[in-house]
Amino acid sequence: MSTTAEPIRFRLRPKQKVFVENKERWSFYVGGLGAGKTFAGAVRSIYYSIEYPGSFGLIGAPTYPMLRDTTQRTFFELLPPQLIANYNKNEAKLILTNGTEILFRSMDQPERACTSPQAQLCSSDGSDGAARAARSASHRSASSFKRSIRRPRGGSCR
Fold first, then answer.
1. For residue 126, what pLDDT is reported?
2. Domains in the chain, please, with CATH?
3. Between 151 and 72, whose confidence is greater?
4. What CA–CA distances, in Å, run from 59 to 72, 141, 144?
5. Dihedral, 1, 25, 40, 54 alpha carbons, nearest 10
6. Which pLDDT score, from 0 to 100, does residue 108 have?
7. How buried is residue 24: exposed, middle or buried, by Cβ count under 10 Å (0-12/13-18/19+)?
8. What's the gap between Cα 70 and its chain centre?
9. Any bridge partners for residue 84, and if so which?
């Protein structure tokens, strides 16, 4: 695995830090415009992707323009480029050097975005679509879940 020489650190507000460091399976960061929701979600996704090599995740936003213009832009501004093995823009699929795969999807049709449960789900702007996607992922059977994704060893899903 190729990683940076030093641990990746971000300056977080106290509430963002609580969210980013939360180890619960499902957690939410709610705030008004400018509260740093997208930033905190991107940081949490980056940390999770590094902590659990080979994991699979989905990062979403309520609409495709929001995904492209805000969520993805923030994520890629924060992600160290040396961690990127491949990014397929047409498929909106990112593969990191440690084998982690991340899909970027619009949440306007969450049932299409989540064809398999995700080890991580990060949605910008707290859309109803994100809640439906999370419910969809959590209602899968345990055997289907184990067959569908590579869970990180020794880790729980978030």
1. 53
2. 14-148 (3.40.50.300)
3. 72
4. 8, 22, 21
5. 20
6. 87
7. exposed
8. 14
9. 96
Question: pLDDT at residue 124 above 70?
Answer: no
Report residue 105 as tokens: 């999807």
CA neighbor of 99 nearest in space, from 42, 49, 53 = 53
Q: How many CB atoms lie within 10 A of CB 71?
A: 25
Tokens of 122: 């990060």
With H, G, I as helix, E, B as strand and everything else as coil, classify residue 109: coil
Residue 64 token pair: 């495709």
Phi, psi of 103, deg, nearest 5: -100, 145
* Helix or strand run (H / E) with residue 104: strand 101-106
Residue with tokens 């509260």: 35
Residue with tokens 């008004």: 32
Q: Find, among 153, 155, 137, 135, the residue nearest to 145 by Cα.
A: 137
Encode pLDDT of 80-106 as tens digits.
999 999 999 999 999 999 999 999 999
87-101 as b/e, with b when 16 or more CB fall inside 10 Å? beeeebebebebebb
